[in-house]
Amino acid sequence: MPLSDIAPGADFVGFALVKSAESKTTASGKPFVAYLLQDRSGSIRTNHWDATEAIPAGTLVKFAGKGEEYNGALQFRLDPHRFRPVEPRDNVALADFLPTAPEPVEDMMAEVRATVEAMSDPDYRALVTALLDDASGTMLRFPAAQAMHHAEIGGLLHHVTSMLRAAKALCGVYADLRPDLLFAGVILHDFGKMEEMERDSAGLVCGYTAPGKLLGHIHLGALRIAKAAERIGTPPEKSMLLQHMVLAHHGCPEWGSPMPARFPEAEVLASLDLLDARLFEMRAALEHTAPGGFSERVAALDRRELYRAGE
Amino acid sequence: MPLSDIAPGADFVGFALVKSAESKTTASGKPFVAYLLQDRSGSIRTNHWDATEAIPAGTLVKFAGKGEEYNGALQFRLDPHRFRPVEPRDNVALADFLPTAPEPVEDMMAEVRATVEAMSDPDYRALVTALLDDASGTMLRFPAAQAMHHAEIGGLLHHVTSMLRAAKALCGVYADLRPDLLFAGVILHDFGKMEEMERDSAGLVCGYTAPGKLLGHIHLGALRIAKAAERIGTPPEKSMLLQHMVLAHHGCPEWGSPMPARFPEAEVLASLDLLDARLFEMRAALEHTAPGGFSERVAALDRRELYRAGE
Amino acid sequence: MPLSDIAPGADFVGFALVKSAESKTTASGKPFVAYLLQDRSGSIRTNHWDATEAIPAGTLVKFAGKGEEYNGALQFRLDPHRFRPVEPRDNVALADFLPTAPEPVEDMMAEVRATVEAMSDPDYRALVTALLDDASGTMLRFPAAQAMHHAEIGGLLHHVTSMLRAAKALCGVYADLRPDLLFAGVILHDFGKMEEMERDSAGLVCGYTAPGKLLGHIHLGALRIAKAAERIGTPPEKSMLLQHMVLAHHGCPEWGSPMPARFPEAEVLASLDLLDARLFEMRAALEHTAPGGFSERVAALDRRELYRAGE
Amino acid sequence: MPLSDIAPGADFVGFALVKSAESKTTASGKPFVAYLLQDRSGSIRTNHWDATEAIPAGTLVKFAGKGEEYNGALQFRLDPHRFRPVEPRDNVALADFLPTAPEPVEDMMAEVRATVEAMSDPDYRALVTALLDDASGTMLRFPAAQAMHHAEIGGLLHHVTSMLRAAKALCGVYADLRPDLLFAGVILHDFGKMEEMERDSAGLVCGYTAPGKLLGHIHLGALRIAKAAERIGTPPEKSMLLQHMVLAHHGCPEWGSPMPARFPEAEVLASLDLLDARLFEMRAALEHTAPGGFSERVAALDRRELYRAGE
Amino acid sequence: MPLSDIAPGADFVGFALVKSAESKTTASGKPFVAYLLQDRSGSIRTNHWDATEAIPAGTLVKFAGKGEEYNGALQFRLDPHRFRPVEPRDNVALADFLPTAPEPVEDMMAEVRATVEAMSDPDYRALVTALLDDASGTMLRFPAAQAMHHAEIGGLLHHVTSMLRAAKALCGVYADLRPDLLFAGVILHDFGKMEEMERDSAGLVCGYTAPGKLLGHIHLGALRIAKAAERIGTPPEKSMLLQHMVLAHHGCPEWGSPMPARFPEAEVLASLDLLDARLFEMRAALEHTAPGGFSERVAALDRRELYRAGE
Amino acid sequence: MPLSDIAPGADFVGFALVKSAESKTTASGKPFVAYLLQDRSGSIRTNHWDATEAIPAGTLVKFAGKGEEYNGALQFRLDPHRFRPVEPRDNVALADFLPTAPEPVEDMMAEVRATVEAMSDPDYRALVTALLDDASGTMLRFPAAQAMHHAEIGGLLHHVTSMLRAAKALCGVYADLRPDLLFAGVILHDFGKMEEMERDSAGLVCGYTAPGKLLGHIHLGALRIAKAAERIGTPPEKSMLLQHMVLAHHGCPEWGSPMPARFPEAEVLASLDLLDARLFEMRAALEHTAPGGFSERVAALDRRELYRAGE
User: Side-chain half-sphere of C163: how many Cα atoms within 13 Å?
Assistant: First the structure.
C-alpha cells in the first residue's frame, strides 16, 4: 500500500523509507522520535511516542497505524507496537524507494573513465585517474546534493556526465579550449562534496560533515587535488590550473568562489555547472506543471515561477 | 607607412581611418577638431587646429605631419594643409583598415538562413524569416558592440553564429530543449542592437541612437518581434515566448533584464550569450599575453586579470 | 450576519464573497475545495469536503455552518449542503462586498478625459485619446494591484487621478515641466497592468496572466503605446518619450525599470508613482493604528512600522 | 575682459573670483600657490610661483598674464607682479562674479516667514520662528551645497522655497497631510548644513567643517531642533516628529538616514527633497544640451545622460 | 514546580514570570489575553479566555491548569479562576525568575566609576561623571537588548564592563590610543538605549519607545552627550569627538551609523562593540551544543551555525 | 643628496632604490624603461630612453640628470650615461632606503617562538613549530603587503606580533577563549602570503605570483597547514580548526572568506586582523595630518578622511 492511500479514519499497513528521524523530548520530559517517512508516492510525518531510540535515516521500515485529520491536515497516528525495520521475509527492495539517476551508474562511470583514458595529456590523465581510483567506490552512487539538484543516488555522476557531454560539445565550437584540462576540471570540480556531505545507510545525503561546514567542498576539493598531485608528481602548473578551476567554479564570492575564472576552461566550467543545475531544477519543476501554466516558486532558482508552454 | 612608424621628430605621411572626430573650441574661442585615427598597427590622437568642419568617423584619410614627444608621450602635429579624405587615385581599400569577423559574413548569414529553413515549426520559421528579410541587409555587416566583444564588421553575425553552434551542440545533450524555439531566440536576441547603435560610414559602431539610450535594445528587440508577429499572424503564445527570451537574455535586472528566464530555452540563451561574450573577451586579452603571464585587467570582464598557462 | 459574528460552537448563516478557491486533494486522494471568504467585516477560511468543482473567485455565496475552535484559533465547519452562489431572490448586492475607490469611477474617468481634452499638443491628445478609447471599458473599474496599494474596484483610476492632480500641482512649481507630456505619461504609465493581471468575476485581481509573468506590465504598456502610435501616426519622437516614461517609471533595475529617467517629466512620473503608492499604504496602515502607537510592519513598505502621532 | 578671451600667445588683463587657492611646494622645495579663478564666462587654473601666502578663496582679484598652449590644452602664465586683490578704485562688484539663486533672497525669506506665521499650530510656529531667528542672518545667503545642486548664493533658501511650494501643492491633493508639520519639516530639514559647510569670504561653500565631517548635517540639524525645543518648551512629541523628519529625509541608510520615514509627512519631505535636487541638476545639465541630443554624464544623477527632446 | 514539569493530561500549579501579555479578540468578538510565561526551566504559551485585562509583562504570577497535547505539541489549558499576581504570602522572589548578568551590578558599576575617576583628562572625567550621575540609577540594572546579546538584568553594564576591560588591554598594545577618550566612548556608547527601550516591571526590555523607533539610540545617545557637554562646559571639540564615536559605533550605514570611524579610538570602539556582542551570542549558543557538534542557526549572527570542538 | 632636492633647471646626482621598472616601447617602436625611484625623502618617475634592459626593482642605483617642469609638474630628465647600480665603492647601504618595521625582526621572531614554546597543547605547539621551521627564513623579513598596511621589511612579523599581543590581552578578558588555538591561528593566518607575493631583491613586495592570483593566500595558507598536519600527524580535528580560522579570517565572501567564523577564536582572529590593519593605516595617515585637520582620503580605508584632534 503506497503512502498516498493513507486516509482519515482508515487503518494502514505499509513500507516506507526513513528520510529523517529526530529524538525529542516533550516539554514534560517524555521522549519521542519524530519521523519523516517517504516512498515514491509521497511522504508523511509521524511521531513514535515514548521511543528513546530512533531507527536511523536510510532504513526501510514496515509500519501500521491510522490516518487522522486535524484542521484539514492529514496526520498519521503510528501504532507504536507495529513499527520496525524491514526483514528479509518482507521481501521489499530499498532501491524501489530511492530517487535515482536515470542512467545506470556503472554506464556513467564507464563514460567518465573512457574520457580520461582518451586524454592525450599524460599528466591530467594520471592525476584524474589517481583521484578516481581513490574515490570511485564512493563516487559511484554519491548524490550531488541534499535537497537541491541531483539529490539522487548517482546524482554526482549524473551531474558530471551531463556536464562532460556539454563540455565536449562546446569544444567543437570554441577551438581554443583545451579539452583535457576542461574535462579534468569537470570531472573533479565537485569531488569535495564527498567529504562535505554525510549519507544515510540508504545512500542519500542526510546532512553535512564537520569538515563540510568548516572548510566547504570547494577548499576540500582543491586540497584533494593538491595532495594527489604532489603524491604522483603532477607538474605544479597543472595542479594549480585544476585547483583554480575548483576554487572558481561557483562564479562569485557570494556563492563561495574566492576569485573569478581567470582562463577560458575555468569560465566554461563555471558556466556549465550553473546551467546543468538550473536545467535539472527546471525539468523537475515543469514535470509537475500543466501546459500553459506556471510552476510553484522554485527555491533553488531564486524563487522563480517557471512557465510550461501550452502544447 | 603604418601608424606605428610615427616617431618623435620624424616626418610622416600615411593613411588611416577616422575612428572619432569631435569639434571643439579652445578656451579662447578658437575652433579645432580632435581626431582619433586608427589602422591595423595602432591608433593616434591629433588635433586639426582652426578647422571648423570635421571629417566624419568612418572616413579613410590621407594625412601628413610630424611626431613629437612631450613628457614621454608620443604626439602628432598634423599638417593642416595635408589632411583630406582619400580619393580614388589613392588606391587604398577601406576593408584593410577595419576589424572584421574571422569568417565571411555571407557564409555566416547562409548558416543562419539554413538553420531557419530547417526548422520544423512553421510559425517560428516564418517569423524569423520575416525578421531576417527585414533586417538582413543591415545585419550582414553590423557589429555587436561599440567597444566590447564583437566590435567588428559582421560582429553581430559572428556572435549569433557561435551561439547557434553551441545551442545545437547543447540540444544533443539536453533532450528536453525545443530546438526551433532556442534557435529562433538565439538569432533574434540582439536584433534591437541594430536600432540601438549608430554606425559610421565605415560600418563600425560610433555611438548610441536616441531610441537606444531611451528604450534600449532589449525593449526594441522584443517590440520588433511583437510587431512582426502581429503582422504575419504568428500565434500569440509563440510571439510571447520569443519576446520573453529577448527580455530575459541579460540574466538579471542590473544587466537590463526585467525578469529571469522562466523556461529552459530562455535560460540556455542567457547562459550562451554571456559565455560567448566572455570567451571572446578572454581570447582577445590572452592573444596579447605571454605564456605563464597575466593580462592587463579586462574592463569587460569586471577588471579580471587573465592567466595564460605556460606552454 | 457579518463574518465577524462567527463564534465557536455557534451556528451561522450568511453571505460572503469568494476571494479565492483552490481545488485540492487530501493525501488520501479525496477531493476538496479550500475557500477564502470575505465581507467588509473580515474574512474566514473553510474547506468544502468532497467537492470537486470550485465556485470561482468573485462569486457571492450564501452559506451556513458552525464555528469551531482549535488551539485558540477560530475555524469554520462548512455545511456542505448549504453552500451556493447567491440567487436573485437573495437580494444582496455584490458591490456591498467589494473594496472600492472612494470617488465614483465615472467621475474619475471624466476628470482624466477632461485633462486629455485640454491638452494643447494634438499628438499627445490624439494618442492618449486613442489608448483610452481602446481601454476605457476595462480601465473604468480595474484595480491597480492584487494585494498592494489600490487593490480595489477602480483602483487604477484612483491611482492615476491622484497622481494627475499632484502632477498638475507640481507643474505650477516647476515651470520647465511640459504638462501635456507629463499628464500623458501619468495616464498611460500603468496601462500594461490591464494585460498583466487577471480579474475574477467580481472585478478584483485574482492573479497574473502568462503575458504578465513573462513580459511584465512595463514592457506590455510601452508596447501598447508603440503600436497605437504607429497606427495613428504619432511622431516617433513623441512615442519614444512616452515609451521611455513607462520603461523608467519604476525608478531602478531592481524594481523593473531597465533605465533611469532621462528627462524631467520621466523623473516626476517615477517620483509621484512611488509617493502615491506609499501614501496609500501609509494611510491604510495608520487607519488601524491608535494615536501615539505604531502600526504592524507593512510588507509593502519594506516592513516599516509606522507611527501615528498622539493627538 | 572675460576669462573666455584668454588665448594662446595673447596678453590678458582682467578680474576674477578666487574659487580655490592651495599653497604647495614643488618637489624641489620651492613654494607656489595653485589657483582656480572663475567668472561667469568660465574658469582657469594658474600657478603663482614662489608665492608663500595665498589670496584666500572668495576674494576678487585683478591679474595679468599670457595664454599658453601645451598639448592642446590652454594654460595661463600668471605675471607674478600683476596679481592682487581688487581695490575700491577697480570699481568691480563681487556679486557680478557669483552664481546666485534666481529670486531675491529677501523675497524667498519673506515667503518662508509668511508660511510660518500662517501656521495654525502655535508650537510649530514658535519653534520654527525661534530657529529662523537664530539662523536667518546666516541662512539668507547660504548655498545648499559645495558643488552639487543649489551651489549658489541663496541656494539653501532656493531649495527650501521650491520644496515649500511643492509641499503646499501636494497638501491640496493628499488631504491627510498635516500642513504645519510638513512645512516645518521642509523649512528645517537642511538647517544642519549651516554648521556642516564652510563658506569663503564671497559666501560660497569652500569645504566641510570638522563637525560636518564627524557628525554630519543630519545629526547636527536634529540636534539643533532638540535644543531649541527644550529651550522654548515645545511639546516633546512635536520635537520628536521634527527630529525624525530630519533624520529620515535622505531616505535610506546608504544616503545617511538611519531610518526610513515612519509617517506621511516624513515620506513627502524625503520625496520632495530628492525630486527638487534632481530637477535642479536636470535643468542645469539640459541648459547646455542641444535639442534632440544627450547631455554629458551627470555625476550628481548617478552618471545618467539626459535627453533634451527635439523641438 | 518548574514549567518543565507540565505534561499532557497532568494538573499543574506553579509560579512564573509574565514575559509578554497581549489582549486579543477572537474572530467572534470574545476577548482573551495571550500570555508567554517563563521561569528558568523554560517557557509556555497559554490563553486566558474571556479576560479583558492583562496582567502586565514583568509580573510574577501564580497559576494552575492542565497540560494538553495537540498534534505532538504541548499546550496548557489555564484555569481562569486560578491565575493571579503573586502575593507576599507566596514567598517567591522575582530575582529567581530573571536572566541576570554574571557579576553583581554594583561591582560592575564600581569598576566603571573607578575607571572614570582615574581619567587624567578633567573634561572627559567631568562629562562622563555627569552623565553617569544622571543615568546611573537606570543604568544599574538596564539590559542591553530585548532579545539579542545581553538581554539580561544588568546587561548594559555587563556589555560595557567587558568592553572596558578589552579596551584597557588594547591600550597596552596600541600605544597611540588615548585611553580617556576610548574609555569615555565605551562607557557612553549605548546610553541612548536607556531611552530607546521600554522595560517591564521586572526590569527586562519589553519593547521600544516612540523616541526609540523614530530617533534611534545612536542619535539619542549623541544628543544626550551634546546637551550634557553644553550644560557643564565641556570643550566643544571633546563633545564632538564623543558624539562622533557614538554615531560611528555601528560601523556602517546599513547598521545605523551614518559615517565610519574617523579616528583610532572610534574604530576600536566599533570593533570591540561588535566583538563583545558576537562572543556573547557564541557563548550562549555553544552552551547548548554538544562537543563535536553544531549549534542551531543563530539569528543574531546572520544565521551562522557554530561549531563546538570535540573535547 | 635626497630626491627632495631635485628642482627645475638644476643638476642632480644621487642614490635611490628602484621601486619599479617597466620595459616599454614608444608608439614609434623605440624601447625605453620607465622607472619609479624612491628614497626616504620621496620618490620620482623618470624614463631611461633607448634602454632595452631594465635594472630590476630592489636595486640601489646611482644616477644623475636634471629637473624639469612641465605644466606645473616636476619631471626628471635622466642622463642615460650616468645611471647604474651602486657599487661597493659607493659606500651606501640598502637598509637606509627601505621602509622597515619599528622593532628588530629577530626580536619579533623570538617573541613568536616563545609564544609557541609556551603552548600547553603539544599538537598545536608541534604544528606551528614545524610550519615556522619551514618558513622562518622567509618570514623573518617578509612584508605583509605590496602597498597597503605593513608594506615594510618585517611587516608580516610586525602584523603578527601586534595581533598576538592583542590576542593575549583579550584572553584575559574573555575566559572561554582557548589561548593555544587562538595564538596558533594568529601566527599562521597570513602564511599563504609568502607564496602569494613576490619580492624584489631588496625584499619588498613587487607583485603577485601565479599561485597568488589563481589560488589566493587564504587557500594557500590553509593548504600548507593541511599538508604539514598530515606530515607530522596532527589530529585531524585540530588541523581542521586551524584551516577554518585561515579560511574565515577575512570575515566575509566579498573579502575572500568563503564562510564566516564558526567558533570564538576564529571570530577573534578575524576581528583583530581587521583592527590591526586599520589602526596601521590610520596611524600612517594621521602622521601626515595637522592637529585639528583631516587626512586625504585613505584608499585602504574605503576612502575615509581621518580626523586628527586638535591638541
Answer: 31
